[in-house]
Write a structure and sequence with these properties.
Length: 219
């Protein structure tokens, strides 16, 4: 497969949306230049490409801009998907990830934000927001009781898309999370956190500046 060398990804390492796109891009083997940013000092080059100012932002060779994380993931997997994360060889399952990812990205993410930043949402307590988020944790736990991954015996885009948000939820109060009955979910999360892919994309880089040496993947 041809690997472009000037595809650019603006990203912030700790953002779960950016995290999942980095995992998909590295897994697919698509060559890209990583431009790590800080949210308090967004480069003008990124804002010119995507005025909404959120990460991740992917700029392709033809100057097409993709600035939704799930769209970036799907684009990367359309380039190369060696382990069938998109389940193209399982047509009966091909639509299954979408509903689960949408539940994560909307309802669960809302409670995650309120749980993590409860002081900004004084309408309810931190415990209230955590309890609401647990509805999703419990549903994932039930899935993982019968299979190693969220949609069965095979790792899919759903696992990669959702994992960074579960990680973030867990790390709000890791001691609490470790004491919960979500034992299968804990094992599932730990396996990702210990994986070579996750640790590769979580390597820390200095914020991008125009004169910096380019950070290129694959390296």
């Amino acid at each position: 497969m041809n690997k472009p060398v000037s595809t650019i990804l603006y990203s912030f390492r700790r953002c779960p949306y950016a995290m999942r796109t980095r995992m998909a891009l590295v897994y697919s083997g698509v060559a890209f230049e990583l431009r790590e940013i800080t949210l308090k000092n967004k480069p003008q080059e990124m804002l010119n490409a995507s005025p909404k100012g959120t990460v991740p932002v992917l700029i392709l060779l033809n100057n097409r801009v993709i600035d939704e994380s799930l769209d970036i993931m799907k684009w990367a997997l359309s380039m190369n998907d060696p382990d069938n994360w998109m389940m193209k060889t399982s047509p009966e399952l091909v639509h299954s990830p979408d509903a689960l990812i949408q539940e994560n990205d909307h309802e669960f993410k809302g409670y995650l934000d309120r749980y993590k930043y409860a002081d900004r949402y004084p309408e309810h307590s931190m415990v209230y927001y955590r309890t609401q988020g647990e509805v999703f944790l419990s549903s994932l736990e039930n899935r993982l009781k019968s299979s190693p991954y969220l949609l069965g015996d095979q790792l899919t885009i759903a696992d990669i898309a959702i994992m960074p948000f579960i990680r973030q939820f867990a790390h709000v109060d890791l001691e609490w999370f470790r004491q919960t009955p979500y034992k299968h979910l804990q094992l599932w999360l730990d396996a990702f956190l210990q994986s070579a892919l996750f640790n590769r994309v979580m390597k820390k880089y200095p914020p991008w500046e125009p004169d910096n040496k380019a950070v290129l993947f694959p390296y």
